Amino acid sequence: MWEEYLYKFFEYMPLYLGLVLVPALIRTVIDTAIIKIKPSTFELPPSSKESILSIKYEDAFSSFVGTSLYAPLVEELVFRGCPYLFFGLTGLVVGNIVWVLAHPSWQLRYISGLPLEKKLAFTANTVFYYSCASIFFSIPWLQDYGLLAITYHMAHNAILTLGGFFHEIELPAPWKKEEAEFFRESRGLKRKLEEKYFRDTKPSEIEEEEEELEVDFEREFFKSITPSEEKPVKVKREQTVIARAVDDEEWLFWRSH
């Protein structure tokens, strides 16, 4: 039994190269050279240290297990194994369509700032790649070798994940240095803005001065005023509003101190 699976594994190798690796290379070239999307777009923001060694062991382990083991197993069973088992070829086709469209559906969130034409080009390029990959991963299921489909899917994701790790350690890309500098500058700008606009300040102390009113109380305007016991009006910052009359006008001008 295991000899048969091993034989089939190597028998599928040319199909894997032609339907998965070559389309992946084509997709990468189109994304970077034509659509102008950097490979690091779908990664987490880089830290100040350009090395995977700055990542905690538990984070790296969790990322590897989730991407290389858990995701391939679930995807193969949910999108190909179960649909093919219960609904035959039609179920396999429908499951593959959903699997293909599921990938650009979340990846597009990372490029939401690009023009619409680039988003459409990225969607078409992504659908092309995953359509080719879905054909390869479906062949073992159709030949009753579903375990090999899962194995190839896990191996493929593991290669990509580990390749990303070693790429970070040995060959840090120039754009990652630029992005790291961008994030450092952004944090510095944020601190400057906070210091300038959000630092703690005490209310300014306002000194109130009394002013003498030089008015002619014989004017009819003042004769019509009824005396009251009201206190001066209080406004913001404990400012006292004082009335002042100008000789050649019939209005009161308000001045705050």
Cα radius of gyration in angstroms: 36 Å
The major β-sheet equals: 3 strands, antiparallel
Uncertain residue segments: 44-53, 248-257
Give the CA-CA distance, first to last residue: 96 Å
Number of contiguous helices: 7
Structural class by sheet pairing and helices? mainly alpha
Strands, total number:
3
If you average the pLDDT, what whole number results?
Answer: 77
Largest sheet strand order: 1-2-3
Shape: rod-shaped
Encode the helix/strand succession as letters: HHHHHHHEEE
- How many separate domains? 2
Secondary structure topology:
Elements: H1 2-11, H2 13-34, H3 57-107, H4 116-142, H5 146-170, H6 174-197, H7 220-223, E1 234-235, E2 239-245, E3 252-256
Antiparallel strand pairs: 1-2, 2-3
Helix pairs in contact: 2-4, 3-4, 3-5, 4-5
Task: Write a short abstract of this structure.
The protein has 257 residues and is mainly α.
